[in-house]
Design brief:
With about 170 residues, the protein is mainly β. About 0% of the residues lie in helices and about 60% in strands. The chain has no helices and 14 strands. It is globular and about 45 Å long. The two termini are about 25 Å apart. The strands form four sheets. The protein has a four-stranded antiparallel beta sheet with strand order 1-2-3-4, with no helix packed on it. A hairpin with a 2-residue loop joins β10 and β11.
Length: about 170
Amino acid sequence: SSMVMDSTNRIHISHMEQNENTMNRTLKYSLFNGTSWYSTIVDDSVFLVGAESSIDIDSRDNPHISYSEDTYGVDPIDLKYAYYDGNTWAVSVIHSDTKAGESSIAIDSNDVVHIAYIVRVVGNPDSKIVYYANNHDGNWNKEQITSDSYGDTLSLVLDSNDKPIISFLDH
């Protein structure tokens, strides 16, 4: 799960929830408006959706979420992106046919979305590659940051000039 506070001090949370009857997992979004909680399903398209989510908000206080999707517990695991435009949720795939894992999302001052994420190397689950993506020109631009890493955690922040800074554990 991941949490962020908006300009009016409302709390936004992205999280995965498991259905006790089917064992399916869905990506949910919850908002605390200062008085009560509101929750909705963002993506329930396959067996395991919403793992390792990250959330941020844009200049209109609308949420953007990056997360992984695992189709029935087998490879591949896609990196997905969902955003709420004030009326509906839109969902897209950023990196497909991989073993995508943890991600970290940040929205810059021009509402450009930046995402850092880890992809596990096929055949060597301990080996991982760090990627960076943004939608500066309306399309997802992806860049490989490392050739091989053994890290499990990463974080993305933007500096005062909207330049990404990525940290990751490499052991």
